[in-house]
Amino acid sequence: xxxxDVRKAITHVAxxxxxxxxxxxxxxxxxxxxxxxxxxxxxxxxxVSQLMRHRDIDTTMxxxxxxxxxxxxxxxxxxx
Length: 80
Prior knowledge:
This protein has 80 residues and is an all-alpha fold. It has one domain. It contains five helices and no strands. Helix 3 packs across helix 4. The chain is elongated, with a radius of gyration of 15 Å. It starts with a helix and ends with a helix.
């Protein structure tokens, strides 16, 4: 499948679900959102890394760095 094929499939599913996708939303934004939801649901970074099939956990760490509130919450748990 090409990126264009994936984009068409996602657009089709969104239409069926009556969901409006943001203009210019990339296919990658869905992976990005999935990673954030997984982290927010309590999975640890190594689990998310495996689910995302990242070869290097540093790739997954980008999702943590983007969410300062999540980092603060983890820090507060360690301090408690």
